[in-house]
Amino acid sequence: MTVRVKIHSTGVCHTDASTLWGRDPEGPGGLFPTILGHEGAGIVESIGEGVTNVKPGDHVIPLWLPHCGGCRACGKTNLCEKVWKMMGKGVLLDGTSRFTCKGKTLFHYMGTSTFSQYTVLPDISVVKVNSAARLDRVCLLGCGIPTGYGSALNTAKVTEGSSVAVWGLGTIGLAAVMGARKANAKRIIGVDINPEKFQVGKKFGCTEFVNPKEHEDRPIQEVLADMTDGGLDFTFECIGNVQTMRAALESLQKGWGVSTIVGVAGRGLELAFPPFQLLIGRKWTGSFFGDYKGEDLPALVEEYLKGELMVDEFVTQELQMDDINKAFDSLRGGKG
Ligand code: CXF
Ligand code: ZN
């Protein structure tokens, strides 16, 4: 049961860039030739037989992490067993590809392929959202914003009055900051080596900043421990760097601090750290799509429409499809 969607807008996520640049992380598959893109929004153009969740004309967000709703995992997580089996295979859940170019079959990407005028997806891979919302904004709810926002609200469950540090003030990190603010954290420290990010960080809720480049004489975990009476209640790694993941763990309060890995490390990289860090009760976890399911996205769209969720503020550049490579250049330069 499939749906054809006319894509209106798409964001460019760093995962698209990693795949394009030959540094595909575990997950998407890295198969070429393909149509990249997985952070889109569009309008249902037609539906196949048996489709009941959407109809032509509906505004939808494609889901790169759909779920069947019937397996063991669906009851507990957003990591559906049925979907997981097909992850990275470059085809739809039914094993087919619906794209060709000059007679040659193309691979799908993350089940969505939003860098396209039209895309075909399984019905469980689209969610209907309020048509009052701008599609060139809510496309960002297809990946980056929920990933960061949900890591703070759903995964770590940041508590009121707590202290938080976020490594990496890109889309994911800024969205984690926004989640921490929503949870009424008292202190939210942005950690980034690019001081240009501090201004924007403030807009999203950072109360302080630390630039590790200004503290090269000692480990950043010591700097943060000094600032926070021994350590933070919550830390978030939103870069995907195994060194900063370790620093984020070691910056926690002993006994109760929780560090959440949100950034995606390169394939094959491994973490090394003294297990004593865990013995003394520092806790490590990770967050995939912010622990959201597709069915949660309409509520985020409503939050946006009510002015309670920042989305417009994430947009750094708007380009036409023909100029898409400029978006990748911006990502490469740390500007987008
Ligand atoms: C990624 C995270 C790493 C696995 C594939 C999907 N998330 C979104 O870009
Ligand atoms: Zn993404």
Please, could you describe this protein's structure?
Keywords: Metal-binding, NAD, Oxidoreductase, Zinc. Its cofactor is Zn(2+). The chain has 336 residues and is of the alpha/beta class. It folds into 2 domains: 2-143 and 292-333, Medium-chain alcohol dehydrogenases, catalytic domain (Quinone Oxidoreductase, Chain A, domain 1, Alpha-Beta Complex), CATH 3.90.180; 156-286, Rossmann fold, CATH 3.40.50. Helix content is 26%, strand content 18%. The protein contains 11 helices and 13 strands. The chain has helices spanning 14-20, 81-86, 135-138, 144-155, 171-182, 196-204, 220-227, 242-250, 276-279, 297-305, 324-332; strands at 2-11, 39-47, 59-62, 100-101, 104-105, 118-122, 126-128, 163-167, 187-191, 208-210, 234-237, 258-261, 283-286. It has a 6-stranded parallel sheet with strand order 10-9-8-11-12-13, with helices on both faces. It has a 5-stranded antiparallel sheet with strand order 6-1-2-3-7. A two-stranded antiparallel sheet has the order 4-5. A hairpin with a 2-residue loop joins strand 4 (100-101) and strand 5 (104-105). Helix 4 (144-155) runs parallel beside helix 5 (171-182). The longest helix has 12 residues, at 144-155. The chain is globular and about 60 Å long. The two termini are 36 Å apart. Bound molecules: cyclohexylformamide (CXF) and zinc ion (ZN). Zinc ion (ZN) binds next to loops.
